[in-house]
Amino acid sequence: MRLPFTHDEFLDVFGAYNTVLWPLEVTLWLLTATVLWLLASRRRISPLVAGLLAIHWLASGAAYHLYHFRPINPAAVVFGIAFLLQAVLFLWFGVVRSALRFEWGARPRQILGIGLITCALAYPVLVVATGLRWPRLPLFAVPCPTTLLTAGCLLMAPPGQLRALAVIPILWSLIAGSAALVLGVTPDLMLLVAGGLLLIYVVAPRLFDSSHAA
Q1: How far apart, in whole angstroms, are the C-alpha atoms of residue 121 and residue 141?
Q2: Alpha carbon distance 210, 205 (integer Å)
Q3: pTM value surpassing 0.90
Q4: How far is CA 16 from CA 9, 77, 173, in A?
Q5: Per-residue pLDDT reduced to its tens digit, 145-183
Q6: How far apart are CA 191 and CA 67, in angstroms?
Q7: d(CA 166, CA 168)
Q8: Taking all residues of the chain, what is their mean pLDDT, rounded to a whole number?
Q9: What DSSP string runs through the chain?
Q10: pLDDT (tens digit, 9 = 90+) per residue, 75-124?
Q11: 56: closest CA among 140, 175, 180, 163?
Q12: Separation of first and last alpha carbons in the chain
């Protein structure tokens, strides 16, 4: 895969992003862990989860793609607009209309979702384990952990609610996952798994469990 920027330029983007926005990353990680703990405690907080996901996509679209990534990659304009659209979709369907229901549980799809959510929360540690060092590394409040988190949460929602919400995460999983080795961020290979699971769940939910109509 040929990219319009070098590996060093890619890492420099994260260096600038982290230097300026590290308080956002820490705050959003803590907020995410808290909201997911509430969801795991069987709290009825689906609008809160949808709002949290909207914040993730807004931060990744505006602060990362449009502001920091655009100078080295013209495609970041398209990516940024897509991420902002995803944020709007979560706000509309999940907060305004309250049409999303996230349920933490032990069904196969939910267990897979928990696994992806765990990868998203562990993403900073996984990236550091690859040998990248602060501040030139992706941590949190950036596209790839955002997509892992989103795929995990969507696996906890009934499939009939997902068609409009799954398209952009699946596309980004393919784009970023296929570039993972080229860019030296091997944890992003999990995106291929996440996108594949989400796609299968949307088109063939019966393959995961027999309660898809719940």
Answers
A1: 11
A2: 8
A3: yes
A4: 11, 18, 24
A5: 999 999 999 999 998 878 899 999 999 999 999 999 899
A6: 23
A7: 6
A8: 94
A9: ---SS-HHHHHHHHHHHHHHHHHHHHHHHHHHHHHHHHHHTT---HHHHHHHHHHHHHIIIIIIIIIIITTT-TTHHHHHHHHHHHHHHIIIIIIIS--------SSHHHHHHHHHHHHHHHHHHHHHHTT--TTSS--SSSHHHHHHHHHHHHTTS-GGG-HHHHHHHHHHHHHHHHTHHHHT-GGGGHHHHHHHHHHHHHH-GGGT-TTTT-
A10: 999 999 999 999 999 999 999 999 999 999 999 999 999 999 999 999 99
A11: 140
A12: 42
CA distances from 96 to 15, 50, 122 (A): 36, 10, 30
